[in-house]
Fold each of these.
Amino acid sequence: MTLLIALTLFVLAVFLGMELISKVPATLHTPLMSGSNAVSGITLIGALVSAGTDHSTLTTLLGFVAVVLATINVVGGFLVTGRMLSMFSSGGRKRS
Amino acid sequence: MSAADVTSVAYLVAAVLFILGLKGLARPRTAPRGNLLGASGMLVAILATLLDRSIVDFRVLLAGLVVGSAIGAVLAVRVQMTGMPQLVALFNGFGGGASVLVAGASFLAVVDEGLVDNQLAIAAALTALIGVVTLTGSLVAFAKLQEVLSLGGFRGQGVLRAVLAVVAVAAAVMVVVSPADTGWFWLLVGAGALLGILGTVAIGGADMPVVIALLNAFSGLAASTAGFVLDNPLLIIAGSLVGASGVILTQIMCTSMNRSLFDVVFGSMATGGVVADADEVYGDRVTSTSAEEVAMILEIAERVVIVPGYGLAVAQAQHAVRDLMRTLNDAGTEVVFGIHPVAGRMPGHMNVLLAEAEIDYECLLDMDQVNPTFAQTDVTIVIGANDVVNPLARTDPNSPIAGMPVLNVDESRTVVVIKRSLGAGFAGIPNPLFAADGTLMLFGDGKKAVLDVVAALLNA
């Protein structure tokens, strides 16, 4: 991938992100934040390659710690977002 | 199709799932599905990555995935909703930390092979700086929210920060100029780590929503720059999507406090203006009330607005407030919640707390929705909020909070303020609302006071 293509992807994705989120209601601020934070754990796929490549002990170690941290971020982030959203959807409706 | 092609197509699928997921998360009805789509995208991305032929040893990977999943799942299942700001801060930090390590490992590997170019060095330096600031900044925010750390600013902090910033920039330049000396990379990481600590340690509680939103943006940005290091389009796309949404949230939070991002990060309150003396404002005009009297007023009310603040979270009063709402609903009284965008310690904090107490989100009104309705409101109950209901923001152009959007609770017929004392809020100024003619002060712990009112209503 050339630098120019990478920069193009970056800029387009920033604009897309702004369009997607611009009118989010306050009620969803926290789930949106924790859900999008889980997505930023995508760095996990880079960590997997670093940890699995047979380069040096140091890079394997760095990769391993990165896999652990990123997995906590991904798994914890999506789970906790799901927990919050399940409260939103059932809240109050049970009574009415 | 080669294995590399399969991986590329899978990454495209994952990127589309992330976009659909974020889109879903922006609407209440589609949010649970959005979260699932995002998680599916992540699963696709992980499975596709495992096809990568440069991976030779899967034991380390599986160990890391298992350990991380276990820790993440336990944290996510165990957390109380009042502890949500801390957990979000912690997850943010872990994401940033992972990006630094990935950039570091990849940078070291390429340096060993002698294949570093400027693009890679610049991207690695940026990732290291942004990622490590996210990591240490989030850990400090976590410690402050968890109340294990109560440090404030100190003398000479500005100078120290400036020095560290210069060191970090110099180290970043050296990483690009002389990548083979990997010591510069670690110096950059060290200076960034201290910068993250110093940048967040002095930030006050009420500014936390801005800080958390900003760190969220940083964690996305760090993943995106890590994508430039690894030459991985999915990291670039997903990271910048998150970065952009974090920036928008940060902007919303700053606007709602009428403070610039600069003021928040550099810890200065708006200057100018004479702060009135508390005795002068309150004098003997403050009317104290009892739970029984509040119950009597509520009995004849037709419309009640409840305005929660951080004090509600501290007192864990969300379930008591739900009981109050149901008791009033049963008597035919309309009850809604008026929520200021920066109430609490993270964006949407109050909404999550009230949702935990099974209050329908359709009863939770934003500032713009609730403000025009105060004039038709019989009773407004303010619980643990101060600056966000201070009318001085509208009336006194010299006030430190002048121009900050506030909830106009003083327009309702009666205002009941539940608060421990007349102590000032984060802005450190007295609130004339407490001494206004239509305001009654119910002093005490938020949860106990609300339960007393409910008991008085039921006994009447």
Note: Chain B has three domains: 1-78, 83-265, 278-459.
Amino acid sequence: MDLDVETTQRGDASILTLRGEIDVYTAPRLRQSIVDLVDGGSRRIIVDMEKVDFLDSTGLGVLVEGLKRVKTREGELAIVATHDKILKIFDITGLNKAFPIHATVDEAFQEAAPSA
Amino acid sequence: MTDGSSGSLLPSDPELDLSVPPKPEYVRTVRHTVGALARLHGVPEDVIEDIKLAVSEASTTALAVNAALSIPEPIEVRAWAAAAIMVLEVLDGGPGPAKEILGDPEELDTGDLPFEKALSLPLIRGLVDEVALGPRPGGGSSLRMTVSLQPEG
């Protein structure tokens, strides 16, 4: 399975819905999508990984790069993931402390919403 | 003839001996092939996922090493399976032990590959029971991983 990246807008949040496998071959596509969003003015990015079958350190590196990129513009990048095989990778690398990780897009959207 | 270095009797010849071009699109082929072998041996699905990720990480590292050194030779992946363990070995053309996986990022130009060296080895170590970095006979580097298939407890 390849990687499918779909971008939708919800309020002021950009939601990246990923389907497939993220590795050294497909990660550049994810990186470009994040770069495009940030360069296009997005400051709240939610990466939905519920339909991701495989994630490696290359994909993690791209997410870290995206987090740094959006944070330099005072933005936020949150992850949506519930499957053990994905959460385990964040846990082993300690990146569960770097990213806000949520169970649903709704939860991430509400959590990341700026206070009025 | 067997290899007892990993604490179990393994055949000297690997059950899987795979060579793939050092290109990103082949890493997927490697992990799915290794996953299929593990499934053939009845390895539980959660352990198969760990094995696939570990071999994918090692293959990505080997790919980056070969790319950085402009080595066109294939990445080699070998696997041995026994009742209690599975051993995976990934071989690249790097000089000596696979220090690049740990080394200074400035020493290794991976071009357009978004390779994250700092995360790869900790991830591998979190997934498998033993990791050994060493020289490859005849030149190059070897990353050997051992996974216990014994249920915990």
Note: The longest helix of chain B spans residues 45-68.
